[in-house]
Write a structure and sequence with these properties.
33% of the residues lie in helices and 17% in strands. With 240 residues, the protein is of the alpha/beta class. The strands form three sheets. A five-stranded parallel β-sheet has the order 2-1-6-5-7. The protein has a two-stranded antiparallel sheet with strand order 3-4. A two-stranded antiparallel sheet has the order 8-9. Bound molecules: the ligand N#Cc1c(-c2ccc3ccn(Cc4ccc(CN5CCCC5)cc4)c3c2)n[nH]c1N.
């Protein structure tokens, strides 16, 4: 997969080159190119923003600069363009799974009050465009969202994660939150590891883990339970 990120703060994306993701890039499993939006300015001040039509707070990112940047980065291809925005549709694991099948992704990191809407509308005539939000809180720009989304996608790609099984057992992959996890020592500050996890009885261990996942989802994310496909919960699950 090839990933391009356009931003006025390229260094914000430096963490992409760390750890597992960095190794996957070094091994050529993913190509990540970060582009400075100011490359496509033509004035001495390298201006990327201007006052909003209709008034209101802050500044808006100029369409001319973004248009040239997207033309240059996307070229003749029609990669999926992802635009983080507080006004976007919620980003979910389903998006990460869907996007992990794409040959290319381009991420547009806005700043200020956002990007002139005509940039998105113009791009949408040539490529698939998705305006998505990380969640119901307000960031200062799109870079943190892109770091999150790229990590969520990249970890699903073959050869990126050390243990591919881990991605399959993700939270949300079966619709439930994962339960608690434990490692050595057997007792820590007077707190023992649950006996079942040391029993070697894998049927009992699987049952215990599912019960903890159901319990945690019930208390923390009842909305996920309500959204489970019909038939996901067994009769025994419902007894929990
Ligand atoms: N994903 C994601 C995001 C973002 C996000 C993503 C991309 C950009 C580009 C610029 N900003 C800053 C900003 C902040 C607030 C507003 C709303 N206005 C404020 C006063 C009147 C309305 C507009 C822009 C961004 C924020 N925030 N939260 C998420 N989950």
């Amino acid at each position: 997969m090839r990933i391009d990120v356009i931003t006025i703060f390229p260094d914000y994306l430096a963490p992409l080159r760390e750890a597992l993701l960095g190794k996957a890039i070094d091994r050529g499993r993913i190509q990540v190119d970060v582009h400075d939006l100011r490359t496509w300015t033509h004035d001495v001040h390298k201006a990327v923003d201007d006052s909003p039509y209709g008034g209101g707070p802050g500044m808006v990112m100029k369409p001319q600069v973004w248009g040239e940047a997207l033309d240059a980065v996307c070229g003749d291809e029609a990669p999926r363009l992802v635009v983080p925005t507080p006004a976007g549709r919620p980003f979910t694991q389903r998006d990460a799974v869907r996007w992990s099948a794409e040959p290319r992704l381009v991420f547009a990191c806005g700043r200020y009050e956002g990007i002139d809407q005509r940039v998105i509308d113009d791009a949408a005539e040539r490529m698939p465009v998705e305006e998505v939000s990380l969640g119901d809180y307000v960031l200062v720009g799109g870079e943190v969202a892109v770091l999150t989304m790229v990590e969520a996608v990249a970890r699903l790609l073959p050869g990126v994660l050390g243990n591919p099984l881990s991605a399959e057992q993700d939270s949300f992959s079966d619709g439930l939150l994962e339960g608690p996890c434990y490692t050595r020592p057997e007792v820590w500050r007077g707190r023992p590891v649950p006996d079942v996890l040391r029993s070697g009885n894998h049927a009992a261990i699987d049952r215990w883990r599912r019960d903890r996942a159901l319990e945690r989802t019930w208390y923390r994310r009842p909305d996920l339970l309500a959204a489970l496909p019909e038939g996901t919960l067994t009769a025994r699950d419902r007894e929990q």
